[in-house]
Amino acid sequence: MSGRVLVGVKRVIDYAVKIRVKPDNSGVVTDGVKHSMNPFCEIAVEEAVKLKEKKLIKEVVAVSCGPQQSQETIRTALAMGADRGIHVEVTGKDYDTLGPLQVSKILAALAKKEEAQLVILGKQAIDDDCNQTGQMTAALLDWPQGTFASEVSLENDKVKVVREIDGGLETIKISTPAVLTADLRLNTPRYATLPNIMKAKKKKIANVKPADLGVDLTSRLEVLRVDEPPQRQAGMKVETVDDLVVKLKDAGKV
Amino acid sequence: MQITFSRWWTSVCDMANPLRGEVFRLYKNLLYLGREYPKGAAYFRERLKSAFMKNKDVKDPEKIKALVAKGDFVIKELQALYYLRKYRAMKKRYYESEE
Asked: Might you name a Gene Ontology BP term for this protein (chain A) (predicted)?
């Protein structure tokens, strides 16, 4: 086994930013808006770096697909402890329509090329909330998957994964190579401090084009419209319980 | 703003050499962390500058080391604050509250 782990990291609008829809409802405003690494991707990077610190794997490679700015996200992963990065350059219209299907094709091609033992991703991105990339990547590679991982342990050439599922936890054992997706409680990601960012500048980021990997980026989806959620209506105060019943009857709720 | 900064820089240069580097490192690290401060990076920078300016005449190396240690502690507190904020936001958005 190569002992190499591929970690996918996505550049998304920062979680604390108030999202605004474009006036033409074609999408969300991204120009001049603060972006950062997807929180679940941070957890994925942390897990990979932890495995390396425990000497269970040898190398952590951070991958991101997108325009020039995606390199900043890769730099953050390098500052957290990844060894090198791969920037898959996707720009313009291709980037607008880039989704889980295209990214999983790219990741599958890279996993084969880099002879990865594990591919670790965040369970979902906070911008599109697809929760598909990990699953699709595993399917394309025909590898087992341990999704919604809240605990990961390597045992020889098998991985024990505790998964967060509705109603509790499920423990599975899968063989490597495998794809894992990180859930919130997997670990506490370390902060990429300024000294670490400075040190990470020496680490290499390779530039790759999707065509080099033989990947077709055509999307099967078309976004028709983006709308804000309905505005919350102002509440009403009533004096007595009888008033409440009258109001509920008027509203047709009772 | 230029004048006050150079006054601080001169006092930093007056310090024992290794400590000067420590203070400068601390200031840069805090400034970098402050970019994510919930009340805004500008608010943080104001408070940071005035905190350092308040101590600009401290000469005793032991006292300086203690202040730098306090600054390092603030760095840890900020990292914890940022993590908790993010964790709570993700938990609220993605997980059913266990009532």
From this structure: amino acid catabolic process
Complex ipTM? 0.85
B95 neighbourhood in chain A, CB within 8 Å:
184
pLDDT, tens digit (0-9, with 9 covering 90-100), for B61-87: 899 999 999 999 999 999 999 999 999
Q: Which of A15, A40, A193 sits opposite B89 (nearest CB)?
A: A15
pLDDT at position B99, please?
47
Domains and their CATH numbers in chain A: 4-251 (3.40.50.620)
Instruction: Name chain A contacts of B38, Cβ cutoff 8 Å.
Output: 16
**Three-state SS annotation for chain A:** CCCEEEEECCEEECCCCCCCECCCCCCECCCCCCEEECHHHHHHHHHHHHHHHCCCCCEEEEEEEECCCHHHHHHHHHHHCCCEEEEEECCHHHHHCCCHHHHHHHHHHHHHHCCCCEEEEECCCCCCCCCCHHHHHHHHHCCCEEEEEEEEEEECCEEEEEEEECCEEEEEEEECCEEEEECCCCCCCCCCCHHHHHHHCCCCEEEECHHHHCCCCCCCCCCCCCCCCCCCCCCCCCCCHHHHHHHHHHCCCC
User: What confidence tens digit (pLDDT) does each residue in B2-57 have?
Assistant: 555 666 666 655 555 678 899 999 999 999 999 999 999 999 999 999 999 999 88
Query: In angstroms, what separates the C-alpha of A209 from chain B's closest C-alpha?
Result: 33
Domain ranges of chain B: 19-94
